[in-house]
Predict the 3D structure of the following.
Amino acid sequence: MDMVTNEKLYEIAEEARANAYAPFSKYHVGAALLTADGKVYTGVNIENSSYGATICAERTAFAKAISEGEREFVKIAISAGDVESTPCGICRQFMYEFAPEIEVITKADGKLRIRKLCQLLPDGFVLDQ
Ligand code: THU
């Protein structure tokens, strides 16, 4: 199976962004998450009048994939349009649970930027019991 390129995955995130629900911040985010077997799950930020109930695009994509039984992830692209949008702290920890090695693709100054989640969240929490 052909691996989805970073460029293509970012494009999918950018397209998904059109469905963001962000009437409060007006900051529209799209994400595209690639699984180990080549499937792509998209996500958008979904805001709420009770602001704390808002969910970010990254967590939406993960929630969709996890709830379909997916457990192995390769990369996630995040688009907020012309500005670079790196994952918030909650999303970093949320994704770390499933994929500490996942590649996180953002775009800054027209160029893709690729880093591993474990670089963005060193020493992330894992419940060890
Ligand atoms: N947001 C995301 O969707 N992903 C991020 O990584 C950062 C922030 C959303 C949450 C909120 O709806 C809006 O962007 C402004 O914070």
User: Anything to note?
Assistant: The first strand starts at residue 30 and ends at 35. Residues 22, 25, 27, 29, 45, 47, 54, 56-58, 85, 87-88, 91 surround tetrahydrodeoxyuridine (CB under 6 Å). The radius of gyration is 14 Å.
